[in-house]
Amino acid sequence: AHQWRGVLREYADRLDISDATPIITLGEGGTPLLPAPALSARTGATVWVKYEGMNPTGSFKDRGMTMAVSKAVEHGAKAIICASTGNTSASAAAYAAHAGITAAVLVPEGKIALGKLSQAIAHNAELLQVQGNFDDCLEIARDLAANYPVHLVNSVNNDRIEGQKTAAFEVVEVLGDAPDIHIVPVGNAGNYTAYFRGYSEELARGETTKLPRMFGFQAAGSAPIVLGHVVKNPDTIASAIRIGNPASWELALGAREASNGYFGAISDEHILEAYRILSAEVGIFVEPASAISVAGLLERAAAGQIPRGSTVVLTVTGHGLKDPQWALRTADGSDIKPTVVANDTDEVAGVLGLSKVT
Ligand code: F0G
């Protein structure tokens, strides 16, 4: 029986790997591209969702990490290092564990979701909580990689972007062409850059007729690219994209230019509204940062910027189980407490409002 072999083996001919490259894989990639009828109905476009929460550690980071860790091991690295808002650390820790090397991860103290923290610890990372934000963590990680025997696996490492571009290949394989618009959440803008690269390669290979317009969304309290300046104290409930000085800022501006793209900012309130719509109406559970793709789509549609009948792909980047607390809260911020009932069928039927079939 056929099993998906991970992005390095599936796309070996389109990545810089050779027989000398050890393939460190957990079976990443090959994620579902799902139609989202509820979002199509709301917008008049044909909307698809690329569900990256289905990767082995629950986020798109695994695509880049298989490449970065495989190349690190090829070059003899015994330890990798990264700064992270959570998902990169979970992924780095898992791939390092699989490769039998050490992962050191720097995260902003108290600011990463419990699921992600648990993953990094479970996979035996050397996890340090830095008394600073993500941007501070990245600066330290870069310093360490420049001066100590540790291999940097943040997306400033081009191997990460190379691995992540494979998601665009998968979209093209399913749709038979590029979509008209592709929407992603933006933190460091590495993934925005990676999709643009993947689609550009598909166009050059003659697999598509066009580039999609690349739309990226940042949380309003952490929107340096939209504002055009570094944000010193970025803030948002979407902790994954709480970043004030994106590492791939320049590359992303180039990609926006070349694709006639767009960067927008979304309030936390609208992120959580989109989070509820995606889980309740489409059946896809994501973490808040991922829901910003949906929020961005709805915002652009309301602004009349999504042509009717166009094909739109939304990447949702991380699984809802990583940071589930937001599901247990209503829009006005009160806790949701599931009803308790007696151990009795009639009472359960009554509470459910069911009347007996006669
Ligand atoms: N969505 C999720 C769930 C993320 O974890 C990230 C980034 C992004 C979107 C943004 O991607 O940085 O390529 O623009 N998380 C990084 C981390 C920063 O450390 O896990 P980007």
TrEMBL record:
GO BP terms: isoleucine biosynthetic process; L-serine catabolic process; L-threonine catabolic process; threonine biosynthetic process
First-level EC class: lyase
Pathway(s) it belongs to: Amino-acid biosynthesis; L-threonine biosynthesis; L-threonine from L-aspartate: step 5/5
Pfam families according to UniProt: PALP
A GO molecular-function descriptor: pyridoxal phosphate binding
Modified residues (N6-(pyridoxal phosphate)lysine): K61
Tryptophan synthase beta chain-like PALP domain location: 24-318
This enzyme's EC code(s): 4.2.3.1
Obligatory cofactor(s): pyridoxal 5'-phosphate
Entries under InterPro entries matching the protein: Ser/Thr_Dehydratase, Ser/Thr_deHydtase_PyrdxlP-BS, Thr_synthase-like, Thr_Synthase_bac/arc, TrpB-like_PALP, TrpB-like_PALP_sf
Catalysis performed (reactions): O-phospho-L-homoserine + H2O = L-threonine + phosphate
Alphabetical list of PROSITE patterns matching this protein: DEHYDRATASE_SER_THR
Residues bound to pyridoxal 5'-phosphate: N87, G187, N188, A189, G190, N191, T317
Sorted UniProt keywords: Amino-acid biosynthesis, Lyase, Pyridoxal phosphate, Threonine biosynthesis
Superkingdom of origin organism: Bacteria
Stretches of the chain forming a coiled coil according to its record: none
Family indicated by similarity: Belongs to the threonine synthase family.
Function in brief: Catalyzes the gamma-elimination of phosphate from L-phosphohomoserine and the beta-addition of water to produce L-threonine.
Name recorded for this polypeptide: Threonine synthase
Organism: Lacisediminihabitans profunda
Taxonomic lineage of the native organism: Bacteria, Bacillati, Actinomycetota, Actinomycetes, Micrococcales
